[in-house]
Each structure stands twice: as C-alpha cells, then as structure tokens.
Design brief:
The protein is of the alpha+beta class. It has 2 helices and 12 strands, in the order ααββββββββββββ. About 10% of the residues have low confidence.
Length: about 290
C-alpha cells in the first residue's frame, strides 16, 4: 500500500487553515456578543462561556464543570403605614344678627275741636215722703209643758209556790194613755208588768216573752235582745194610746198590736213561780201620753 506524501498533506492543512480563519473570527465575535448579553441578563452564564474551547473544532473529552448560579433572595417590600386622616374641625356657624327694626313713627293725629253743649237746667222735685213700716214684734212661742208624771216608784213582788202567779198593784191609781218606763229585775223563773188591769207583759230568765190578757195571748216568742239569767235587769218601755200598744225591751221593739180589751185600769208587777221561788223588782216611771 502506498503512503501519502507528507508535503502534500502540509499544503492542504495550511490551505484549510487559511480558509477557515474568517469563520473562526465570526464565531468568536458571536460568542463574545452572546456572553455580553448573558452577562447582562444572567451574570452566571459568563463563566460558562469563559470555559468554552477556543477552537470549536477541537474535541475536549473532559467534561466542563458548570457552575451553579447563586440565587439571591428577593427582597420583601415593607408595608407602608397608612396615614390616619386628621379630622378637620367643623367650623361653628356664627349666628347672624338680625337687624333690629326701627319703630315706625305714627303721625300724631290732630285733635278735632269738640263743641261743648250746656244742657238746660233740670227742675228737681222734692222726693215723696216715705212712710215707715213698723217692724212686727215676734210672738214668743210657748214653752211646751212636759207631760205630768203619774208615778215614779219601785215595787217588789215574790212567789214561793209552784205555778203560783202573784200580782201586786198600786192602790188608787188608774192609767189610760200612758208611757211606762221601768227597769225589771227577776230572780227565779219569770216576772212582768200589769197595766190597764188586764194586760200582762212577761219576761222569763230564759229569754222568752209574751203579752196576754186574762183570756188570750196576743204575742209570744224569744229574743236575743232580752238579757237572760237569774237576777238580770231589762229596760222595758210600754206605750199604750187608745187601742194601740207597743213594747220595747233594751231598745228593740218586740210587740206592736191593736187590741180593745181595755182602755184604762190599774198598774203593778207580778212574779210567776214555775218550780223555783221567784222575786220581781220593778222601778216605775209613768207619764201621761
């Protein structure tokens, strides 16, 4: 096999080198321009370009170390404090002064002259004579004469026999239209008053009462107005006018009847023994009615 000529190889290599020189220059310029741009936008890329081989055709079998770009911390923007607006003072409106109105002057009226008319003299007449009326003298009213007292005297009656009625009267005394006021005290069973001879009003120590004649019982019953018990005293008022009779005990009316059995008679008291010895004490005050 034929070996190539060494001179031929040398000329060809030189020729090849001369032809590729402008391209190398352009490549270097491009690399420098790119490096400048990379340095502006990313400074870490310049180191990568600086380690690139000068001859692009040369083959470098060793790996080129790539530097790790340093990451710079992004500065955090500090919040600016929001200024607090100061309140503006509200101007106080000044009160407007109203102008004081000036009083209007009224024109003084001119007085109109008044004609004075003198009236004619009036003839006076003498007043008529006035007759005095005599003042009537009041007639004195007569003082009412109190009713005459017929009797003002006590009486005592006793009964000691069972079912025995003992009556005592004032001798020589006759009554008709009268008002009898008495304080009746009974010890034992029953006691009472006799008037107009035939009327008997009885009060028992047990609170019972009755008005009767010698033959008839006109009213009977019991009342809480009567004071009960042996020795109790009851105030009795009897009014007998014509045929009308009313009887009140301790202020309570117990009898109101009309009866014509008798219109006049004697007055006295009685005691009734119904099993217990009985005594009656009665003080009488009798006036005509």
């Amino acid at each position: 096999m034929r070996k190539p000529d060494r001179s031929t190889l040398t000329v060809s290599s030189i020729f090849y080198t001369q032809r590729s020189t402008p391209w190398l220059i352009m490549a270097l310029i491009s690399i420098i321009f790119v490096a400048l741009l990379a340095n502006i936008f990313n400074p870490g890329a310049t180191a990568l370009l600086m380690h690139a081989p000068a001859n692009p055709l040369a083959v470098n079998t060793q790996p080129t170390p790539i530097p790790t770009p340093e990451l710079k911390p992004t500065p955090t923007a500090k919040p600016r404090p929001t200024p607090t607006p100061k309140p503006k003072p509200t101007p106080t409106p000044k009160p407007k002064r109203k102008p004081t109105p000036k009083p209007k002057r009224k024109p003084t009226p001119t007085p109109t002259p008044v004609q004075i008319i003198t009236p004619p003299p009036v003839q006076t007449q003498a007043p008529p004579s006035v007759q005095k009326v005599p003042t009537p003298t009041p007639t004195p009213r007569p003082t009412p004469t109190p009713p005459p007292v017929i009797l003002n005297q006590p009486m005592h009656v006793s009964s000691s026999t069972t079912n025995d009625l003992v009556i005592a009267t004032f001798g020589g005394l006759t009554i008709s239209n009268v008002r009898i006021t008495s304080a009746l005290k009974t010890e034992g069973d029953s006691g009472g008053i006799v008037f107009r001879s035939v009327y008997r009003f009885r009060i028992g120590t047990d609170g019972t009462y009755d008005l009767s004649t010698s033959s008839t019982t006109l009213r009977s019953g019991s009342s809480s107005a009567i004071k009960t018990g042996s020795g109790a005293t009851n105030n009795v008022t009897i009014v007998a006018v014509n045929h009308h009779i009313t009887i009140t005990v301790n202020g309570t009316q117990l009898v109101n009847v009309t009866n014509s059995a008798s219109s006049s008679g004697n007055l006295g008291a009685f005691a009734l023994d119904s099993g217990t010895a009985t005594t009656t004490d009665c003080s009488f005050y009798v006036v005509a009615d």
